[in-house]
Every structure is written in structure tokens, then in C-alpha cells.
Amino acid sequence: MKKYAFPWFAILCFVFLPIFADAGEFTPEQVKAASSDGPVDGQEAVALPEEGSSPASADSAAEQKVLTDAAEEVPAATEPDLEKETDYGRTDEGQVIADPFEFLNRSMFNLNDALYFYVAKPVARAYSFFVPEWGRIRVRNVFKNAAMPIRFVNSLLQFKFHAAAKEVGRFIVNTTAGIGGMFDILKDNPNAQASEEDLGQTLGHYGIGNGFYIVWPVLGPSSLRDSIGLAGDYFLDPVSYITPTIDSMAIRSVDRVNDISLRIGEYEDLKESALDPYVSFRDAYLQYRSKKVKE
Hints:
By secondary structure, the chain is mainly α. It has two domains: about 1-75, no CATH class; about 85-295, no CATH class. The chain is about 60% helix and about 5% strand. The chain has 13 helices and four strands. The chain has helices at about 5-25, 30-35, 55-75, 80-85, 100-130, 135-145, 150-155, 160-175, 200-205, 225-235, 245-260, 265-270, 275-295, and strands at about 90, 95-100, 215, 220-225. A hairpin with a 3-residue loop joins strand 3 (about 215) and strand 4.
């Protein structure tokens, strides 16, 4: 019996030695995680390699754990809160306008949309049938020339004296040589173009914000600041002083219909290309007014 003791001992060593050798490759944390019922505090449990696996499998698990911990430490990119964006209009420059009355504004937008397609556009088409484009451009020039006081006063309020002087010069030349403003004599002169200033831009020039967005019936998109500006410009417009009031309203209606007749198709194109026409028109208005204030 004694002569067989050594071979049996050798066989036992041969069988169990690799197991103890693999166990020696584990870190204390891995051994603790494997022997416990759950993961180590603050860490995920690392699974022990199966019997017969190579020592490199344990190293791969440890490396994977290090990479996982490193990835968890990297802060996730914050995504914009899209829900909050619905209450604001926004331009590419990051400018915003509050829209707390969006429900009412959308109702007014839908009303104006219906008025355009069922009233304004048919009337403008009939008007353009009787008045050729040449004549409609002359009508537009007359109204633009008559609105000179609005541009002149607001240019002065913004200390744009050169622009104010141009407005006076344009008015004199177009009223006389242009036959009451029907012909824009200086339209090809880049140094004598109209400034297109209004009181809303003047308020913005002095740092007054938009306030909130509002859609007026017939008048269309505006803001609190620009609505105040419209009220102020009303008293600078010579048409406002035509009496009786019904005549003044009739003249403004002609101006409106004439303007629409020269731009039929623009509204339709913008609306068709927008996923949400209301939002598109709101943001387009904000961007347009912001550009005018900067100019």
C-alpha cells in the first residue's frame, strides 16, 4: 500500500492545483463579491470565471468593470426641455418671446387664416383683375410716401439724423417729381432708401423687450412692445386724420388689399412648408422684428 501513496498524492495535486492557482488570480473585492449575497457597496458584482476558463477571463471582467465605472462618472449630456419650449418663440440667435396666451393666439391665428383665404385673398384677386400690377405698385408707393412722418420721427428718436434727413429728401423729391409719390424716383439710389423705422423698433432700440407674443384680429402677429408702437404710430400716420372715420378705414382697407394683391402666394408657401404654421409664423415674426431693431 505504501508504494501507491505517492502516485495518488501526485494525482490529487494535479487535479486541485489548477483550481487553487486560478483562485489566486482573484482580487479581494472579487472574492468578497462572489462569496456575498449581493454586490459590494457602491459596486456591481463581478462574476467568477467558470471552471476551466483561462486566467485572462478574470482580468477581462476586471477591466470591463473599470471601464463601466469610468463611463458612469462621465455626466450625461443634458437634453433640452422640449415641454418648456412650447411657451416661447425662439430664433437662431437664441432670442425668445413669451407666449403665455398661446391658446387664444392660436384661435386668432386660425381666424386670420380663414379671413385670408375666404375674404382677403378673393378680394385681392378681384382687385388685381381690374388694377394691373403697374397700377398697384403706384398705389403702394403713394401710401409709403404718405407714411414718411412715422419713419422721420422714429429716426430722430433713435438719433439717426442721417436717416431722418434722407426721409425728408425722399418725401420732397417723390412728392414733386414723383407726382404725389406714385413714382419712387430714388429707388435705384442705395444711399437714399427708406429707413422703415417705427415706434416698436424705437422702443427696442432703448432696450425695451418684446414682452409677450400676441396675435391681433386682421392685424396679425405682434408683441406687447410692438402693439404699443402701433398705437403710437397711429397718431403719426396722416391717414388717421382723414374724416369721417369711415373714410379713413376705407383708405386703410385699400392699402391692405393692394398690399396683399402684390404678395399672393407668400403666405401659402410659408404655411405649407411648416410643420406647425403657428409656431413658424411666430418665430419668423420674432426674427424679423429682432433684425429690424438691430438695424
